[in-house]
Amino acid sequence: MHAKYDPKKIEPKWQKEWETKKIYKQYDRAKKFYALDMFPYPSGAGLHVGHPKGYIATDVVARKKQLEGYSVLHPMGWDAFGLPAERFAIKSKTHPRISVRKNIANFKKQLSNLGFTYDWDREINTTDPEYYRWTQWIFLQLFKKGLVYESEEPINWCPTCQTGLANEDLEDGKCEVCGSEIEKKPLRQWVIRMTAYADRLLHDLDAEQLDWSESIKEQQRNWIGRSEGTLIKFPISNNQFPNNSQIQNSQDFIEVFTTRVDTIFGCTYVVVAPEHQLIFNDQFSISNSEEVRKYIESTKKKTEQERNDASREKTGVRLEGVEAVNPFTGESVPIYVADYVLGNYGTGAVMAVPAHDERDFAFAKKYDVSVRQSVGVNEESGIKNQAENMEAFVEDGILVNSGEFTGLSSQEAREKMTAWLMKRKLGKKQVNYKLRDWVFSRQRYWGEPIPLMKCESCGWVPVPEKELPLKLPEVKSYEPTGTGESPLASIEKWVKTKCPVCGGAARRENNTMPQWAGSSWYYLRYIDPNNSKKLINPKKEKEWMPVDLYVGGAEHATRHLLYARFWHKFLYDISVVSTKEPFKRLAHVGLIMASDGRKMSKRWGNVVNPDDMVRRFGADALRLYEMFLGPFSQSVSWNTDGVVGMRRFLEKVWRLAPAISDQQSVVSGRNPKAESGKLNALLHKTIKKVSEDIEGMRFNTAISALMIFVNEMEKAESVAREDFETLLILLSPFAPHIAEELWSLQGNKASIMLERWPKANSKFLKEEMAEVVIQVNGKLRARLRVLAGSSQEDVERMAQEEESVKKYLANAVVRKVIFVPDRLVNFVV
Ligand code: ANZ
Ligand code: ZN
Question: Domains of the chain, with CATH numbers?
Answer without folding.
Answer: 153-187 (no CATH), 227-432 (3.90.740.10), 629-764 (1.10.730.10), 769-828 (3.10.20.590)
